[in-house]
């Protein structure tokens, strides 16, 4: 990766594309190099935002957990497209 965080090189884009297993041609490499540089520039503008020196007023807005009866297994599986041995069956993931 490039030495300077301000600088995006085409090799940086190729490296990220390889990690993501994305094939990019030279025109796309150039386009993404410019776009990545623009995006990093936007992050640099955050350095200009003044810090706020106050504590946030935080409050727990979640309700307490309550125990309720659950559905019977047959009722829960009633509308499932596929079940197996009393469980939901989903597609194989490879």
Automatic annotation (TrEMBL):
Superkingdom of source: Archaea
Annotated catalysed reactions: L-glutamyl-tRNA(Gln) + L-glutamine + ATP + H2O = L-glutaminyl-tRNA(Gln) + L-glutamate + ADP + phosphate + H(+); L-aspartyl-tRNA(Asn) + L-glutamine + ATP + H2O = L-asparaginyl-tRNA(Asn) + L-glutamate + ADP + phosphate + 2 H(+)
EC number: 6.3.5.-
GO molecular function ontology, one term from the record: asparaginyl-tRNA synthase (glutamine-hydrolyzing) activity
UniProt-listed Pfam families: GatC (PF02686)
Class of this enzyme: ligase
Protein name in the entry: Aspartyl/glutamyl-tRNA(Asn/Gln) amidotransferase subunit C
GO biological process: glutaminyl-tRNAGln biosynthesis via transamidation; regulation of translational fidelity; translation
Statement: the UniProt record of this protein carries the keyword Nucleotide-binding: yes
Task of the protein: Allows the formation of correctly charged Asn-tRNA(Asn) or Gln-tRNA(Gln) through the transamidation of misacylated Asp-tRNA(Asn) or Glu-tRNA(Gln) in organisms which lack either or both of asparaginyl-tRNA or glutaminyl-tRNA synthetases. The reaction takes place in the presence of glutamine and ATP through an activated phospho-Asp-tRNA(Asn) or phospho-Glu-tRNA(Gln).
Transmembrane region(s): none
Subunit structure: Heterotrimer of A, B and C subunits.
Family: Belongs to the GatC family.
Species annotation: Natronolimnobius baerhuensis
Keywords: ATP-binding, Ligase, Nucleotide-binding, Protein biosynthesis, Transferase
Region annotation (Disordered) ranges: 63-94
Comp. bias intervals (Basic and acidic residues): 63-76
